[in-house]
Amino acid sequence: EWKEVSENRRLKQLNHLLEKSSIYANYLLNKKRQKRERKKQKKAKSLSKVEEKPVKTLRGRKRKAETAEIPVVDGIMQINGNAMPSTQPEYLTGGILRPYQITGFEWLRILFDNAVNGILADEMGLGKTVQCIAMICRLVKSGFAGPFLVCAPLSTICNWINEFKRFAPRIPVVLYHGTAAERCVLASTISSVSSDLQCHPVVITSYEVLIRDRPSLGQFAWDYLIVDEGHRIKNMNCRLIRELKLLKVSAKLLLTGTPLQNNLSELWSLLNFLLPEVFNDLSTFEAWFDLKKMQKGIETEQQQDVVNKLHKILAPFLLRRTKDDIEIYLPPKRELIVFTPLSESQNEIYQAIVNRTVRQYLQEKENDEQYEIALESISNDSNQSDQGFYERETRSSTLSTRQLKEREERSTIQDESVINVSLSNLMMQLRKCCNHPYLIKYPLLPGTDIFRVDEDLISSSGKLQLLDRMLPVLKKNGHKVLLFSQMTALLDIIEDFCRFRNYSHVRLDGSTKCQTRQERIDEYNSNRDLFIFLLSTRAGGLGINLTSADTVIIYDSDWNPQNDLQAQDRCHRIGQTRSVLIYRFVSANTVDQFMVERAEAKRVLERMIINREKFKGKLAEDLNSK
Questions:
Q1: Of 239, 242, 287, 346, which has the most beta carbons under 10 Å away?
Q2: Which CATH superfamily is domain 2-30+98-325+612-624 in?
């Protein structure tokens, strides 16, 4: 009886949530229908009117030409000789929007006009950025003076600047970044008004700067807030979401290609940020949409009904198109999981870690030859996953200022082996062993503190042996490679390998400065002879365009499968002309394989809720029926 009462109460709460969501949906769709009727009436009236008289005087023609935004041929605006869609914003002059992008822009416009926030969740690589730029162009043209705020990952803010310059060069843009003194000067420019379009600028900044400068940025009343890679606020208790909620904002938009990553509470966090008056009770949301039942698959009519209701709840606020949904040709993408065995030394260390005898094992090895041992417990916290780990010596040819300081601090350490083994995070030590044993013990040249780089670097790791066999073939056949890893320390080892085999390469990770990031991206895309791009998955897997590559190697997988998908789509996106092949390296019968299997299980819920063919956004379907 108690269960029946509880079930009835949950059903009542769910129906209430569904009712509130439906109010938004019906309101927006009615507005759309009304607009269509007005447009039909306006068109009918215009047909009955006499054409506008041509401008006869030279002065009049000159004045009209000066006010024209883009060339007009036979009454049709054009860009590079191509007709511009009548619905494309006038200030978007750097290219022609594709039909599905026009639909997305229209969806954003309707949400804004009716004071509703939303999530643009198009699959990665379909041009969410340009749709947002189109929306800001429309706002400026409609008389909204701004300012407008874009908050994005550090790796993408330079790309935002470049896209504005390319597609909407007349829209004023400010990159809010740099030192505290520089940001203080930049803050004063936000109040300035463009003499051309009479509007405040679009301010582009990173998550970290926004958190640090929220009191300063909070003084402005923002017409539009765009949070790029919006899944960054999936944790409802993170500081970023708290600071964003304190801003004075008229309208909010989240951009994410992966709105559902691990569980429904993360999706609810996004919805609560956008629409707190609708999504205000996480416990009810989670209680009804039972995650465990959904991951087992839809087996009953009742469970199917629950999923259908969730689709209806999300429909007004979320627009999602995949590459298969749109009428555009993209070369195929194929992923291969390549299982590799552990080398002999890897297997010995792996078993020693499992048996918690690794300290004894390393000390015994120390009696045979000199090793540099550097193990540190690395948290599985995603915010720390890109920090690497302690190294006693760094390659002198690639020392950063921070690394030089660390080197000076370590110069007092005696030139003898240091064993600093921590097993407080056993999983991380096993992962490092699967990637390369040098992450646990890196041999030195006798009598020096210089790392030894020779054939043993390759033979001691099963994955690196595979990479060493693959790369010559890929290079010979003219392919360009993106290699992703979770660990910056592993990228150090891959860099040693690339130098040893004379492979041209560039690198991008969490420590790469903003300007340097864009320079390296541009260099890799423009230089056909630049073979390999080494990237940390979380710093290099977001919002950057590397379509010059056609091969992706996932050296080690992420617990969150969406991060690896983001990484793959750096090259499988609009602009790619070749088939894309992804190789995922997995050490067989180890924690490596366990991680891949767990990640695949997490995708079951995402496929069910977000990527259903029937779920493209109710409003989007209505727009497509025009």
A1: 346
A2: Tandem AAA-ATPase domain (3.40.50.10810)
